[in-house]
Amino acid sequence: MRLGALRKAALANGFVRSGELAVPVVSARHDVGRLIFASPIMSLNGRISCQDCHLDQFGSADGLPNAIGVGGEGAGAARLHSGGRILPRNVLPFWGRGSRGFDTFFWDGRVQLVDGHVVSQFGVHAPSTDPMIVAAHLPSVEVREMVTDTPQIREGLMSEDVGAAASIQSTLASRFAADPAIGPKLAAAYGLPRDRVSFREVTDALASFIRFNFRIRPTRFERFVHDGGPLSRREMAGGVLFYGRGRCAACHGGPYFSDMKFHSVAFPQAGFGKNGFGVDEGRYNTTLNPKDRFLFRTPPLYNVAKTAPYSHSGSVVRLEDAIVAHFDPLRLVDTREMTVRERSDLYARLGTASRETLPSALTDEEVRQLAAFLRTLSF
User: Fold this and answer.
1) Distance from first CA to last CA of the chain, Å, rounded?
2) CA 224, 230, 232: angle at the middle one, nearest 5?
3) DSSP 112-123
4) Which of 369, 64, 102, 55 lies closest to 238, judged by CA?
5) pLDDT beyond 90 at 157
């Protein structure tokens, strides 16, 4: 009976076969997108690529609490100690990005599809009607991520005008077009002469690669729901909790185990934070609506067991602790070791988080059961 109930609950909450989510891509564009993904040409100083922060060994993330941008070298701990610029948020994995219905991007949703229109930092000048392609435009012009923070950059290119971004991206497009390995393939993939290649083609190819390479694949849970495959007793118990008393599916529903909306969990804040002084106000930084303080887009859960550390600030290393943060966040902090500012910020975040749909208090064994279930979403 529990087998049937779990399958029924998954389907009722929007779970579908992975093949239904894939967006077809043109193979020539995907192939050149792979080269672009690995190329340091994507950065203005020519020294950092998309691949440097999205690595296979870390489930397409970087394995670090906070990302290391320009100046970083190596992977994992080596990159952390390389002297690169620290970015205030945890790297998001790429699984499912740009697939069917996946149209809200970044922790704060700064790019999303709303009523058929792309809402982004570009305003009415969005470079595409495809939110995935618009999202692919942003890292290349993010200071400290792929643009070195220098006085020249601050004086010449840091502005509220999208023209500054267009200037950088036009330069990058010219470099890609001139590259002997990438230029001919990029031009051929779009049927253009090399001198007509723009950054629009660069990001379209990049989006094609991400859509194909990081598409959702069959998991043990998919085989259980659709093909009658097995789950262990602990995994089964975790699945029942996930869709039942744990209330996880209230936010982690849908085909990607995310409602693509914005919620608050009082995770510990690691690093200096997007707003500085160890504070990150999340969605508020995009909307400037006070009601959005400390809200973040619900992270999808595919391959979640491979993408530690967790939360927007990468403050939680263990998957079990990430679960605990949803119903017992004070277990993860020692307020005696915190500054007044840190305690004040935690108090504010606790208030926001307490208004969410909270799971029932779980035992340690139930937390382990949930973690076991989440590991069935790996591929």
Assistant:
1) 27
2) 115
3) EEETTEEESTTG
4) 369
5) no
Q: In this predicted structure, what is the pLDDT of residue 46?
A: 80
Read off the tokens for 356.
């969410």
209: left (phi over 0), alpha (psi -120 to 50) or beta: alpha
How far apart (Å, rounded) are the C-alpha atoms in residues 353 and 66?
22
Helices 183-190, 199-213: crossing angle, 10 deg rounding: 90
- Record the pTM: 0.94
Give dist(CA 36, CA 177) in Å, integer: 11
User: What pLDDT score was predicted for residue 90?
Assistant: 97
CA–CA distances in Å: residue 301 to residues 91, 245, 252, 378: 14, 19, 8, 9
In the chain, the percentage of residues whose pLDDT exceeds 70 is: 97
pLDDT one-digit tens code per residue, 258-269: 999 999 999 999
Question: Could you tell me the two tokens for 376?
Answer: 């069935």
Gap between the Cα atoms of 75 and 62, Å rounded: 7
* DSSP-derived 3-state class of residue 55: strand
Per-residue pLDDT at 10: 97
Query: How wide is the angle at C-alpha 314 spanned by C-alphas 310 and 319, nearest 5°?
Result: 25
Mean pLDDT of 311-338: 95
Contacts (Cβ under 8 Å, ≥6 apart) of 277:
341
Residue 29 sits at the vertex; the CA angle it makes with 27 and 30, to the nearest 5 degrees, is: 60
Residues 6+ positions from 237 with CB-CB distance below 8 Å: 366, 369, 372, 373
Query: Which is nearest to 173 in space by CA: 145, 202, 139, 206?
Result: 202
